[in-house]
Amino acid sequence: TRLAAATNRPEKLVGMHFFNPVPVLALVELVTTVRTADATAEIARAYAEKLGKTVIHAKDRAGFVVNMLLIPYILSAIRMYEAGVASAEDIDTAMRLGANHPMGPLELTDFVGLDTTKYVADVLFDEFKEPLYASPPLLTRMVEAGLHGRKTGEGFYRHQ
Question: Is 49 in the active site?
Answer without folding.
Answer: no
